[in-house]
Amino acid sequence: MKKMEQLYEGKAKKVFKTDDENLYIVDYKDDATAFNGLKKGQIAGKGVVNNKMSNFLMQIMEKNGIPTHFVEEISDRETVVKRVEIVPLEVIIRNIAAGSFSKRFGVEEGKKLNCTTLEYCLKNDDLGDQIIAIGAATKEDLDTIADLTFKVNDVLKAYFESVNIELVDFKIEFGKTPDGQIILADEISPDTCRLWDATTHEKLDKDRFRRDMGNVEEAYAEVFKRLGL
Ligand code: UDP
Q1: pLDDT for the residue numbered 137
Q2: 208 CB within 6 A, ligand 1
Q3: Measured in angstroms, how far is the CA atom of residue 118 from the centroid of ligand 1?
Q4: What is the rounded CA–CA span in Å between residue 223 and residue 186?
Q5: What is the pLDDT at residue 126?
Q6: Which residue has a Cα nearest atom 23 of ligand 1?
Q7: pLDDT, mean of residues 56-60
Q8: Are 46 and 32 in contact (CB under 8 A)?
Q9: What integer pLDDT is reported at residue 124 of this predicted model?
């Protein structure tokens, strides 16, 4: 596998072409941003943690029948993934109220929701992440995405519970392969999930960076350790 030219550089990852037209390489950075890029910083070692953690969790998804873009981890920060066209939606699941949901509805952070909620936001931050799902994918794609997302929640929540972590909420993204299959893409990491210690409710995710709480690296390392990585 040959790493070819860079295709794209995002906030936390770079994506490269390879000599196989159906495969890309993602390269995870330590850069962290929040509030639509207004807050910028670095979390030392985050790229390694997120790469390995995301790959580990994607493989658990695969074992549970959820198709993903994961192909092969080739270094601490680099992974070969399937080429997809990203569906321009951030799909958000919430089990417990936090963040923008708490603000929007005036619900205290930490309140267990009566039912799991699913939201779609447009990926483009310039549009203020307004909830406009219609038109961003076909009706059939959205049905597949919703089914897969609830399944991801069931598997992920149970897995994190087994290591005494509460899965508060998370954001995932899907992609479409050249033959039209919808598969889980992007990443699953403390950048994209709210993870709380189930006993102390201590935050073990990017909120420590967003809210200047300190011990950011330690929190990422703790989740990494609990997953046995
Ligand atoms: N999230 C994300 N990327 C974003 C916005 C949110 O990965 O650009 C994740 C976030 O980490 C949390 C979930 O999506 O796990 C819900 O976030 P929320 O809507 O509460 O927004 P926030 O308060 O993080 O701005």
Answers
A1: 74
A2: no
A3: 13
A4: 19
A5: 53
A6: 99
A7: 98
A8: yes
A9: 63
The predicted pLDDT at position 160 comes to 98
Identify the pLDDT of residue 190: 98
The 10 Å Cβ neighbour count of residue 199 is 9
Query: pLDDT tens-digit profile of 2-11?
Result: 999 999 999 9
Atom number in ligand 1 closest to CA 171: 14
CA of 63 to the centre of ligand 1 (A): 26
What is the tens place of the pLDDT at every residue in 21-46? Answer: 999 999 999 999 999 899 999 999 99
Ligand 1 centroid, distance to 57 Cα (angstroms) = 19
Residue 187 CB coordination number (10 Å): 25
Whose CA is closest to atom 24 on ligand 1? Answer: 99
For the chain, give the mean pLDDT: 94
Confirm or reject: Cβ of 99 under 6 Å from ligand 1: yes
Most ligand 1 atoms within 8 A of CB, residue of 160, 171, 208 to mutate: 171
State in Å: Cα 1 to ligand 1 middle: 34
What's the CA gap between 107 and 110, in Å, rounded?
A: 9
CA distance 50 to 191: 8
- Ligand 1 midpoint to CA 191 (Å): 8
